[in-house]
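quick one, 254 residues, struct below
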Amino acid sequence: MQEAETGTEVQGYQLSTVRRSRTSWLHNMSHPLIRRLNARAAKLFGVDASQVEGSGGIQVAQYDRGGFYRPHFDSSPPLQLLEAATKGHGHGHFPSRARVATLLYVLRGTESGMAGGSLNFPLHGAASNLTHRNFLEAQGLTPEGWARECNHGLVVPVKRGDGVLWYNHVYRAGKVGALDEGSFHGGCLVRRGEKWIANHWLEMSPPYEVRSLDDEIAAAMALLQSMKESLLDDGEVEDAVEVSRVVRLSLIHI
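---
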């Protein structure tokens, strides 16, 4: 196990200042246990096992008392992924492909006497003006303050034998699109004992649905115009607004 690193393909990686944990990786795809896990994950993801086997291995993370991981995304925006691939970045631990879905296994949790350490999706059910960019500031929180409170949005306790599955990107017309704001998540402060988890990701290669800044501005203007038209037409604003998906969760006994 080693101290956790964070960063981006383009900017590089360094010891994390927003995550207190240790990590290691399981890469031996021929081991019977890993093969069984890959087969189960493939069924849940709805893909062939070979696609899971090619998704960079399984990450194991251990959190001691005082450990946490501030809210983050497991993947990156499509434009950043394409930039990383173009520049030749990417390896097993930090891919230049989209991590479309995450399957988190709980190896040790509350059943061992651990306190805290829940999985938190802070933007689940949040007001539309809250995003991953302004969440902490809007709540007046530091990462450490969030980890201690950890009562925003959806809080999922962690217990050995449970699994949590969620999707990190919007998927439209056969293309991996923008990051799903609902997948913004973090690990709450471990107040007592220790927590062990493992992350199993499903990675996908292009085509990605990439939108330039000009496209984003044009889409925003079109949305505003449609809202104005709806207001003039019996006030039916709801049909003109695309409601963001909430995170899709399923607890799985493993």
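The chain is about 25% helix and 30% strand.
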